[in-house]
Design a protein that fits this description.
heterodimer, A: mainly alpha, 2 domains, two-stranded antiparallel sheet, 15 helices, globular, B: mainly alpha, Cytochrome Bc1 Complex, Chain C, elongated
């Protein structure tokens, strides 16, 4: 039993956690025909129930799962997995019909029904169920109230509200101006841009995957892997000093993790060229600046010429560049994660003189 | 032959009472038509009732299918109504000052028998964040943001952000350790706003001669908190935003959102 727990704890390393979610997404998308079966969906739910049931016998697990404000995130895990499976299942069902030359299921349901009684009664039942769940939840679980606010007593760890924990997790890899301001703004802008950059006329008003492969995959990556799984990670697996703890691990405040993060400028000037860091920040950071310009300036143009030519032609220059820039900003997080894990890279560009670190 | 005497069967008392009530002038003044059990009245009920008129008279079959809609949009709206109601009740007891905020919450917990309004408000808020996300997820997976619904997707994105801000501003109000440190962590980001936060890139460029225009006591974070730390100013600001400003804006946008669902062709479906 303990061996199993330590094995799961071992598995719950930020690198493994993230890679697992990415691999899971790849498998879901690639093997969707298998994943869409009922056996998989209910099996997954059953696995979660067993996992949480098993975990509740463990003190440390219960402590973190049972925190009142964490209960919604447990619900989120179930709901997210269920609806990811469900939407893929419906997409696969429709894709089968489409490839057989039949219209999607929704087309068969095009005939109209009366709002009264069909819709209003559904709504009534939904409202009653919603109210019942909320009342039972409220009676069963008291809202948290800690000690009175004290500016002099900082809790460790200090966490943002759970829905912002994905952003707080980004702080490990990015400075606040990017993780807290620029990237969140880009998430909003990116979401709003979706209907204007996606000019694929297919897949409007019905579940499908084959007609919208790239769109659905990118969205699932952004919403499920980056946004939601980082929230789950930040809630359950980040403990004191923002160190990583397995779900069965005791939150030891004295846990030490070696942090020897190195700037790109140090790598190049000190380690490779064997020189002292230049005094002038522009000279010192020139490689990082060039790299950044290549990433957001040259790469989109190069991809338009080779690699994504099809998209460039389909979307036209404006849509193409907006899409690729937004996509590259999204991918900057996994890129930064990988460079951190592989090379202990702290900042690509580091100009503390005016708070400009990338 | 004597005439056969026919006796009309008497309807049960409840039915007669119901018939009598629905024939009174009071009843007929409220409901202009009889029960929606035939097509004519099913149209009339939708057209004459202010609460129902945001629905069409008839809709696509998939629009009432849980399989298609997951009911997440409707659930978000219902949770918003629950939150408005429970929030209103909480406002009777809660004073947003350093002196009273925490003790009022303690009072709500300790002195109200069977009181679950704070619980319903808190769990309802968490649930609404989740339902709004799942609503967005569903709309994306069915491609329902595609023309002609591009604008409504945008309204939805703004409401998603407002939902998070509503939850965030409400998080501070209990004024316990959980509250101020969550808001401290969250609002610390604002000091790194490019140009407008005093620790943001480019802030040092915002200067007239040697006078710094952006510093700790006038930057983006200060505007959010009404101070240089999470204190009295922040509590009042968050209270007003949470109870008045943000609900007004999101309520206005909801009206636009529902209106546009209708005007953009009703619930989405294959073209």
């Amino acid at each position: 039993m303990d061996a199993l727990k330590s094995f799961i704890d071992l598995f719950a390393d930020p690198r493994l956690f993230f890679l697992t979610t990415v691999v899971a997404l790849v498998l879901i998308v690639w093997k969707r025909e298998t994943f869409a079966s009922d056996r998989w969906g209910w099996g997954l739910m059953g696995f979660l129930v067993v996992f949480f049931g098993f975990g509740l016998f463990d003190e440390n697990f219960k402590l973190i799962i049972g925190k009142p404000d964490n209960v919604p995130i447990v619900a989120l895990i179930f709901l997210l997995l269920f609806f990811t499976w469900f939407s893929m299942r419906e997409a696969v069902r429709n894709d089968r019909r489409l490839s057989a030359g039949e219209p999607p299921i929704e087309k068969d349901e095009e005939d109209r029904v009366w709002t009264w009684p069909d819709l209003v009664y559904t709504e009534l039942i939904a409202m009653v169920l919603c109210t019942v769940i909320l009342i039972v939840w409220s009676i069963g679980l008291e809202a948290p109230l800690e000690q009175p606010a004290n500016n002099a007593n900082t809790p460790n760890p200090s966490k943002a509200p759970w829905y912002f924990l994905g952003l707080q997790e980004m702080l490990v890899y990015f400075d606040p101006w990017l993780a807290g301001v620029v990237l969140p703004s880009l998430i909003i802008v990116g979401l709003m841009a979706i209907p204007y950059i996606d000019n694929n006329p297919k897949g409007n008003g019905y579940y499908t995957f084959n007609e919208r492969r790239a769109e659905v995959t990118i969205f699932l990556f952004g919403f499920v892997v980056l946004w939601s799984s980082l929230i789950i990670l930040g809630t359950f697996l980040r403990g004191p000093n923002w160190n990583f703890f397995g779900p069965f691990e005791y939150w030891d405040i004295h846990k030490l993790e070696a942090l020897t993060n190195v700037q790109l400028s140090e790598y190049i000037w000190v380690r490779w060229l064997g020189m002292a860091l230049p005094g002038n920040w522009l000279v010192r950071e020139i490689f990082g600046i060039i790299l950044t310009i290549v990433y957001i300036g040259v790469l989109p143009v190069a991809l338009a010429k080779k690699g994504l030519t099809g998209y460039y032609e389909k979307l036209g220059p404006t849509r193409y560049y907006v899409t690729v820039l937004l996509f590259l900003s999204m991918m900057s997080l996994p890129v930064k994660m990988l460079t951190r894990w592989l090379f202990n890279l702290k900042y690509v560009v580091s100009i503390p003189e005016f708070f400009f670190n990338i | 032959m004597a005439d056969t005497k026919t006796i009309e069967p008497k309807s049960p008392a409840l039915v007669r009472a119901w018939d009598w009530i629905t024939e009174t002038q009071i009843w007929t003044s409220i409901f202009r038509h009889s029960a929606p059990i035939n097509d004519r009245n099913r149209v009339l009920v939708m057209l004459s009732n202010v609460f129902l008129h945001m629905h069409p008279v008839r809709l696509r079959k998939s629009g009432v299918r849980l399989r298609y809609t997951w009911c997440m949009g409707g659930m978000s709206f219902f949770l918003f109504l629950v939150l408005t109601f429970t929030g209103l009740l909480l406002m009777f007891y809660y004073r947003p000052t350093l002196e009273y905020a925490y003790s009022d919450i303690v009072g709500l917990r300790e002195h109200v028998p069977l009181g679950i309004m704070r619980e319903m408000h808190r769990w309802g808020a968490h649930a609404m964040v989740i339902t709004v996300w799942l609503h967005m997820f569903r709309v994306f997976m069915t491609g329902s943001y595609k023309p002609p619904r591009e604008f409504n997707w945008n309204v939805g994105v703004i409401m998603l952000v407002l939902t998070l801000l509503l939850s965030f501003t409400g998080y501070l109000l209990p004024w316990d350790q959980l509250a101020i440190w969550a808001i401290t962590v969250g609002s610390n980001m604002a000091r790194a706003t490019p140009f407008l936060g005093h620790e943001g890139p480019g802030a040092s460029l915002m200067a007239l001669g040697d006078v710094q225009l952006v510093h700790a006591a006038d930057d983006a974070r200060f505007a959010l908190l009404g101070g240089t730390f999470v204190g009295e100013g922040a509590l009042l600001r968050f209270y007003v935003l949470h109870c008045v400003a943000l609900p007004l804006v999101i309520g206005f946008l909801m009206a636009v959102h529902f209106w546009r669902v209708r005007k953009d062709g009703g619930i989405s479906g294959p073209l």
